[in-house]
């Protein structure tokens, strides 16, 4: 059986490797549709609230109103320097790869799996017109070959 749960968060990011508008620092309302494989053991399977109790606070703490940033993006060093000079603190979600929606899907799939849930697939909406469907097969393939995340460099996501 599949249970579908939806979550959202707001975050800034840019894709420093692109030469178009996506290079600008900008924000999205990221929408998640989680498809969980669950066992039916009686009248109920996993309670909807059991998903929410782990996933919602995690997204609030690590993603919401934060900034997704590639560790190698020069802007990251600049913003860290700002933190050091002013004492101000930003919420960074640091990737060891570009902050594409594909890499975000890999990271979230890994983190939600780590919480003890079994995802069949994860849809991530970046804009009104752009949504990706990231499957368990995609996740297995990305884990087998982390260079898929970076387009060559052997390292994976995140902190
Ligand atoms: N395969 C991917 N393509 C793009 C990604 C990505 O992560 N993976 N990201 C972007 C940009 O970050 C961008 O913010 C989204 O771009 P786009 O869909 O073009 O934005 P809009 O919907 O605002 O574009 P309009 O067509 O003008 O409405 C780009 N591509």
TrEMBL record:
Pfam families the record matches: PTPS (PF01242)
| Protein's UniProt keywords contain Metal-binding | yes
Enzyme class, first EC level, given as a word: lyase
- Domain of life per record: Bacteria
SUPFAM superfamilies cross-referenced by the UniProt entry: Tetrahydrobiopterin biosynthesis enzymes-like (SSF55620)
Keyword Lyase on entry? yes
Please give the cofactor(s) recorded in the UniProt entry for this protein: Zn(2+)
Keyword terms of this UniProt record: Lyase, Metal-binding, Zinc
Kindly state which reaction or reactions the protein catalyses.
Answer: 7,8-dihydroneopterin 3'-triphosphate + H2O = 6-carboxy-5,6,7,8-tetrahydropterin + triphosphate + acetaldehyde + 2 H(+)
Q: Which InterPro entries match?
A: 6-PTP_synth/QueD, 6-PTP_synth/QueD_sf
Question: Pathway, according to UniProt?
Answer: Purine metabolism; 7-cyano-7-deazaguanine biosynthesis
A single GO molecular function, which one?
6-carboxytetrahydropterin synthase activity
Entry's EC annotation: 4.1.2.50
What family is this? Belongs to the PTPS family. QueD subfamily.
Protein's name according to its UniProt entry:
6-carboxy-5,6,7,8-tetrahydropterin synthase
What organism does the UniProt record list as the source? Answer: Botrimarina mediterranea
